[in-house]
Structure formats: structure tokens, C-alpha cells
Amino acid sequence: MQDFLLRERQGVISERLRLNGRVLATELALEFGVSEDTVRRDLREMAAAGLCERVYGGALPVSPAHGSLTQRIGFAADRKQALARAAAKQIAAGSTVFFDAGSTNLAIANAFPAELALTAATNAPAIAAALIDKPAVNVILIGGMVDRQTGGALGAKALRDMEQISPDLCILGACGVDLEAGITVFGFEDAEFKRFATSRSKRVLVAATSEKFGTAAPHSILPVAHCECLVVEHDADPTILARYRERGCRTVLAEKTN
């Protein structure tokens, strides 16, 4: 009987996550007529099974940003290109910009004008290859062991290389974006490198497709309040965007795709 009730509660929680994008342990405890500890155990079991991501006070849907870099490049390519065009306009001539690994960031590297002079650093070989074709760009490749999942160099060597750079702008890759959970990613070492890269940078920009909003991955990078600019799709909810702006995060809308 207990197993049946557990499965029933978890089924309801999964449906709430699908419909509302977030659940709170206090509300679920009242609805189910059980203790908050019971609900928290349910959420822990669901998180361990990859069905949700635990956050303070409840849970969020798991970020959809799974797969290798090659797989992610092929997903929503037109929407990422629209985000890239909007993000490219935030890059100032003569600045030093760090391009974090990621499929959207690769699109940004391809999108800005070839004549825009800047110094670009990246831990992603694919992004470095895109930048090297732009004659006005000086490219710094951050080295180390390349992680196949992220497409970027991670670990001690990458951290030492990053320590030598103080970017004006960090174009940060993200798996999940949420007002409370902040900017999150799946990999532990990826999160460590991203946190250090943002700490070295004057400004942080995140460009993310709509699917990533209101979701979370296991490892936190920074709160949304530390993200100076958030580039979003043209149809993003104005009410939600206003809440990001209240946290000090400037929002930029991409163009509508055909």
C-alpha cells in the first residue's frame, strides 16, 4: 500500500512539474496530507531517478540540455542563430571576450561581424576554429583535457590558463536558468571552470533557448543577479522577464525566426 501511495504521489508531482514548472514541498505536503519530510523523501527519490532537480523548498524540471555538443548543435539551430545575432550586438569593439563552450555560444562566435576587432578567449576548440577565420580577432585557446560532453577544456590546466585573463565580457554557457536556482549545469568540473571564468570577468552574458528557463541541473554557477545580460527568444513571457530585471539582469529579445 505504501509503495502504491508513493507512486501515486510521485505521479502527481511529475504532472505538477509538467504543468507549473515548479513544486513546493510545503504545498505538496498540505495537498497529500503528509509531512514535509515525506515529500522531501519523495523528491529525493525522484531526483535520484532523474525525474526532477531538487532546489531549496521544492523541485524544478530537469534541464533538457542533454547530449554531446554535436547533438546539441543540431537542436533548434534557427532559434540559436536568432539568439546569436542578438547576443553578438552586445560585444564591444576592442574588448576581451571569453566564449564558454556550448552550442549557442558557437553560434554567437559565428554571428558577429568579421571586421569587429577584439581579443577572444575560449576553452572550446570548435569556437576557436570559428573565430580564427575572423581576421580582426586575436584568439586565445585555453587548453587542457577536452570534455566530450561540453566540448570544452576543463580541469587544472584550463583553470591556470583562465587565471591569466581578465575578460570584459564572459559569454557563459548554461543548461538551466531559473530565478531561484540561478544558472546551472550538469557537470561538476564544468561548473567549477564556469564559476572561475565568471569571477575573472567584468560582465556576464547568457543566451538561452526557452526550454532551459524554469529548469535546473545539479551544479550551480551563479545567481541570476550576477548575470548582467540575458538574451532570450522573441516570445519570452514579459511577466517573467520583468522578474529577472528586478534582480538586476538586463534582458535582450532575439528576433522572431521564420
Automatic annotation (TrEMBL):
Entry superkingdom: Bacteria
Signal peptide: none
Domain spans labelled HTH deoR-type: 6-61
Keyword Transcription regulation appears in the UniProt entry: yes
GO terms assigned for molecular function: DNA binding
Pfam families per UniProt: DeoRC (PF00455), HTH_DeoR (PF08220)
InterPro entries: Carb_Metab_HTH_regulators (IPR050313), DeoR-like_C (IPR014036), DeoR_HTH (IPR001034), NagB/RpiA_transferase-like (IPR037171), Tscrpt_reg_HTH_DeoR_CS (IPR018356), WH-like_DNA-bd_sf (IPR036388), WH_DNA-bd_sf (IPR036390)
Alphabetized UniProt keyword annotations: DNA-binding, Repressor, Transcription, Transcription regulation
Family matches, as SUPFAM superfamilies: NagB/RpiA/CoA transferase-like, Winged helix' DNA-binding domain
Protein name: DeoR/GlpR family DNA-binding transcription regulator
Organism this protein belongs to: Rhizobium indigoferae
Source taxonomy: Bacteria, Pseudomonadati, Pseudomonadota, Alphaproteobacteria, Hyphomicrobiales
